Amino acid sequence: MSRIGKKPIPLPSGVKVQIGEQLQVTGPKGSLTVPIPPGIKIEQKDGKLELLRDSDQHAALHGLTRALAANAVQGVSTGFTRELDIVGIGYRADIKGKVATFTLGYSHPIEVLLPEGVEMRVDKVAGSPIQNLQVRLVLTGRDRQLLGQVAANIRALRKPDPYKNKGVRYTGEALRKKVGKTGAGAK
């Protein structure tokens, strides 16, 4: 039996679900749909969603569907947040509407169009324990998968350099600094 699949999903107040071909979850932050694979049934009892499967043949999709449904419920009620840090002298980020502009040490600024449902806020950080930290990006949205993909795309613009630790990283990401060349002229 799937440990994750058999856990019920509590429904917060203000969240409504419609069960059909797909699970439609509506809340204060918007609405999301979750596909229901064949062999999986969703029942609503006492303010909770319970997922049941027909047989052990559908075990792999049982936990997956429950996790997707739980993410949809949390996304439309409270939403998700992902934070990134931009580290480096002269590295900046600005946002105007749905277009984020990054200056990351290249010869040109990089513009990123944020998809619908993802919001970005730019915070300036002063006196941070991380050297050269100037900008913190806070991404918020209701769709966890989309939010994580946007955060990964922004991080890929300038991955953290292992020698100088400059670049875009997730907040709290542990980096191992490598030692550069030592004694290049010594024999």
Features:
single chain; 187 residues; alpha+beta; Outer Surface Protein A, domain 3; 2 domains; 4-stranded antiparallel sheet; 3-stranded antiparallel sheet; elongated
How many helices? Answer: 2
Mean pLDDT: 89
Low-confidence parts, pLDDT < 50 over ≥5 residues?
Answer: none
Class of secondary structure makeup:
alpha+beta
Output the strand order for the largest sheet: 11-12-7-13
Q: What is the CATH topology of the largest domain?
A: Outer Surface Protein A, domain 3
CATH class of the largest domain: Alpha Beta
Structural notes for this entry:
The protein is α+β, with helices and mostly antiparallel strands and 187 residues long. It folds into 2 domains: 9-77, Alpha-Beta Complex (Outer Surface Protein A, domain 3), CATH 3.90.930; 80-170, Outer Surface Protein A, domain 3 (Alpha-Beta Complex). 17% of the residues lie in helices and 39% in strands. The chain contains 2 helices and 13 strands; from the N terminus they run ββββββαββββββαβ. The chain has helices at residues 59-77, 144-155; strands spanning 9-10, 16-19, 22-27, 30-35, 40-45, 48-53, 80-87, 92-96, 99-103, 110-113, 118-124, 133-141, 167-170. It has a 4-stranded antiparallel beta sheet, covered by helices on one side. A hairpin with a 2-residue loop joins β2 and β3 (22-27). It is elongated, with a radius of gyration of 22 Å.
